Amino acid sequence: MAIQRPDDFDRRSEHLQRLNDEQLDRLFWELAGKIVDPLVELARTHTSPSIERSVLLRMGMDSFQAGAIVSKALELGLLGKGAGHLVLRYSQYTGKSVEESAKELAQGRGWEELIEIFKRRKENAVAE
């Protein structure tokens, strides 16, 4: 037998009834952000080589490039930054396309620059 839940919607929604559409929209997105915050944090702090390869494949890299980039990132302790993020940062730094940047990183070039980019970002964050 199903348990009947009392209909208390009117009471529970009183605080929403006086809001206009813009305020409701803003509240919705604020609450949606709070709901996904733990997921974003989990994704930021927990990754794996297979997840990072999958991200790179979805960015358009082939499996050789994805494997090479993830292996090197893991070796250098950069995998937690996100393999796709590494390629994007390198692309922004060099002004090259994401495709060109991925090719270079997969061939072992550009990693020193990436390490320097993240080292400078960390120093700037500490200085602030």
3D structure, described in words:
The protein has about 130 residues and is mainly α. The protein has helices at about 10, 15, 20-45, 50-60, 65-75, 85-95, 100-105, 110-125. It has a domain at about 50-125: Helicase, Ruva Protein, domain 3, CATH 1.10.8.1000. The mean pLDDT is about 90. The protein contains 8 helices and no strands. Helix 5 packs across helix 7.
Number of helices: 8
Number of strands: 0
Largest sheet: none
Roughly what is the average pLDDT, rounded to an integer? 91
β-strand amount = under 5%
General form: elongated
Distance between the termini: 60 Å
Low-confidence segments, ≥5 residues, pLDDT <50?
Answer: none
The radius of gyration computed from the alpha-carbon positions, rounded to a whole number of angstroms, is 22 Å
SS-based class: mainly alpha
Quaternary state, please? single chain
Percent helix among the residues? over 70%
What's the architecture of the domain at 49-127 in CATH terms? Orthogonal Bundle
Task: Write a short abstract of this structure.
This protein is mainly α and 128 residues long.
Give me some keywords for this one.
0% strand; D-ornithine 4,5-aminomutase subunit alpha; Cbl-dep_enz_cat; 128 residues; cobalamin binding; EC 5.4.3.5; 73% helix; D-ornithine 4,5-aminomutase activity; mainly alpha; Helicase, Ruva Protein, domain 3
